[in-house]
Amino acid sequence: MYADVRGARLFFDVDGAGLVRDRATMRHKPVLFVVPGGPGGDHSRLKATLAPLADKAQLVYFDYRGCGWSAPAPPGTHTMDTYVDDVEALRSHLGLDRIGLLGISYGGMVSMTYATRYQRHLSHLILVVTAPDHRFMTRAQEIAAERGTPRQQAAAARLFRGGFENSGQMRDYFETMGSMYAQHFDTAEEQSFQPRFNHEAINAAYGVDLHKYDVTDRLSGITVPTQVIGARHDWICAPEFSVEIADRIPGAQLRMFENSGHNVQDDEHGAFIDVVRGFLDHPPQHSPEEKKGLRMPAVEKYVKWDYTDLAATYTQRPSYAPGAIDRIVEATGKPGPRVADVGAGNAHLTVDLLARGCVVDAVEPNEAMRTIGIQRTEGGTVTWHVGVGEDTGLETDAYDLVTFGSSFATTDRLLALKETARILRERGWFTCIWNHRDLNDPIQNEVESIIRRHIPDYGYGVRREDQAPVIIESGLFEEPTTLREPVLHRVPVEDWLAAWRSHGILENQAGDKFPAILEDIDAYVRSLGSDELEIPYETVGWIARLRPRR
């Protein structure tokens, strides 16, 4: 069977009924996607090995785009990001809400990346002889030097430099390396299988793509039941990596097979099947309290300030200049562009984007801010997500525009730009904007003086800097255009004072002086004797287009 998804034609096959009788009722078995290793082979060998699991789960086998029985695909599409998003597209194509993943070797890497990106659609995770980052390749070369024959060492070197010239060389590689992969290697049995090989896919992975692979710091955010399986004699995904994965994923179970190599599902087939069956029967569960305590590792790692106490008053902050927002949205050249609004807060910029017909994915790490944002945008074409600029958790190659409304300065900007480039479509747009106070205005000038009396070295961090240099430094975007447009904020005194109470940068620098500063600002503003103020701001931003991908 074939599924046409994301411009690719993927082969898939299903083993086992989905709906089965359970005494007097019918029940759905879990759906388990079998994520193959490689890449560059097909699923045929796994189908023969995993068939006994079909009574516990409905198994969905598939081949990566351009591999095995799937239709040919351009060489540039052989990336892990592409494969991960293809898995998600296949899930959606099949009309499935949540799926389990059984990922072996490279398939485990795809599965972990999927879990960090699409966990809401994941029910179970089984990670077999895999690794959390690119370090496995260095370790594998060390083991090959220790254990391998000269011929095997040469074959391993070809793998890790991405040097296969044709599919025949791939076939020779697996025959040469057979005794490294399996403790009980049978040459005749190996030759009886005739998988379809694609050397371009495996070259792209080991020659380029896997050198960027690293989900280590995101594993602690995986909350679905997880079984990790390692093999003591595994040469390519050494057993210490299975231990590390199990340590980093909360509640994960680890089973180390002491008499197996990388082909653990063959070396100790019966015991392997028993472990997976047992996990499917009785997956470990987090209590509600444990789940509440689990936070996305990206949030833990990157969030600089806690906006919880400021969330309620943040809605009083001045709106951005309408003309600036118009220019940003119009730059996409599309009606109803798909936008990722990162650091969306309580929807300060999101509401402006929705008003202009955008379809928005709003990303915000703070629960209090996000809750208000969800309320403010109810009924709009928006979906809210937990994430940060450095790790949004959003789809690859999916957005026409990525916006940072007053949030870019709180990120590691180069990492945020790299993440932005990942989620943008070809030639998509990036923008970051702020509302800057006009310090030439008498009221703003006096407020600035009040602040500096309490904090002489008060600074604005990078938010008032020219953002063009860091955008150019990233090497990902074309020369940015600067946006500057004045906006006059007519605001009741009470609302303007409330906006100051939401000032995260000021609170962060003031510490315990923050209440005193607010009192002095309050006293000064009330001394003006007006119920409403006219406060000038300037919306300042930078907009840049993604460079063509090579």
Automatic annotation (TrEMBL):
GO terms for molecular function: aminopeptidase activity; S-adenosylmethionine-dependent methyltransferase activity. It comes from the Bacteria. SUPFAM superfamilies: alpha/beta-Hydrolases, S-adenosyl-L-methionine-dependent methyltransferases. Residues 30-268 form the AB hydrolase-1 domain. The keyword Hydrolase applies. GO terms for biological process: proteolysis. Keywords: Hydrolase. Belongs to the peptidase S33 family. This is Proline-specific peptidase. It comes from Actinoplanes campanulatus.
